[in-house]
Amino acid sequence: MTGPLLAGALVGAGLYLFVRAMFPPRPGLSARLAAFDAARRRDLDDGPRRTSPTFEKVGTLRSRVGTELARYCEARGWKMHSIRADLAITERSLEAFLATKVLLPAAALLFIPVVVAYFALLGAGVSFQVPVWICVFFAALFFFFPDMQLRQEAAGRRQDFRHAVGAFLDLVSMNLAGGRGVPEALMAASNVGDGWAMQRIREALANARITGRTPWQALGGLGEELDIAELRDMAGALALVADDGAQIRKSLAARAASMRSRELSELEGKAGERSQSMLVAQLLLCAAFLVFLAYPALMRVMAA
């Protein structure tokens, strides 16, 4: 009974997709406005798009699938703020991410005949449903695997970026103490480091000077793009007290100290978790050794 139900579900899904492809629904007003805004942003973006080194060489099929999926999401008005922020901080493109998210499960489903033939060669005697469900399980796993990988990499890079922001705040405070203005202090502090975080801050400040925006607006926009709360808070503080250099110095120094103390507490918490895991592993090892020592004596008692 399960086989006909599964076949009917597959046929129904195929017919539904065929009808949707032949007669696509008309996009609403919000979808049209979202597509118009996305096209305008693409036209205003004169710089090169950021891509990861692993995605620099994208095949024709992958590029076409990713472009079509990105257009579909933009036409539907799907913002995907968290995914876009993770992609921005990992320097990946949305098209490559969407193509990977779709093509990996499709590749897993294409292996259904191979798995069926493998079970037939083994002579396992299982039905057709077992290989199908195995491939469906791996397809679902591959569908969520890019999200998990992206979220893990983005969390690590955000941690590094917060560390760089703490050093940046100290450098800005030192430049303000030397008598420089706020824009000059921000630019001078960003020119000190050569890391990728400092490079992103330096690019944001340079673009703000060209476009006529204030430096704190540029930092706030960068914090929104990368989902870095510390940058947004610093931009808000600079916007509030931009006319009082001494107050800015005190505020930035206090923020840098709080960021360092929070980072230190997080590191201490991680160290405590690792020591606890090591303690549990040692206890399990001792218990296994005691079982190994007591096993011969227990067997003798039970045999007697």
Tell me what you see in this structure.
The protein is mainly α and 304 residues long. It has helices at 2-22, 29-44, 60-76, 81-90, 94-110, 112-122, 129-177, 182-190, 196-211, 215-226, 229-240, 245-303. Helix 3 crosses helix 5 (94-110), helix 7 packs across helix 8 (182-190) and helix 9 (196-211) packs across helix 10 (215-226). The longest helix is centred in the last third of the chain and has 59 residues, at 245-303. The chain starts with a helix and ends with a helix. Residues 45-58 have low confidence and may be disordered.
Task: Give a quick precis of the structure.
By secondary structure, this protein is mainly alpha-helical.
Task: List the main descriptive attributes of the protein structure presented here.
304 residues; mainly alpha; 12 helices
Radius of gyration: 28 Å
Give helix % range: over 70%
Shape: flat
Overall average pLDDT: 78
Unreliable stretches (pLDDT < 50, length at least 5) are: 45-58
User: Order of SSEs, N→C?
Assistant: HHHHHHHHHHHH
- Termini separation (Å)? 56 Å
The share of residues in extended strands comes to under 5%
Output the structural class.
Answer: mainly alpha
Number of helices: 12
Number of strands: 0
Report on the biggest sheet: none
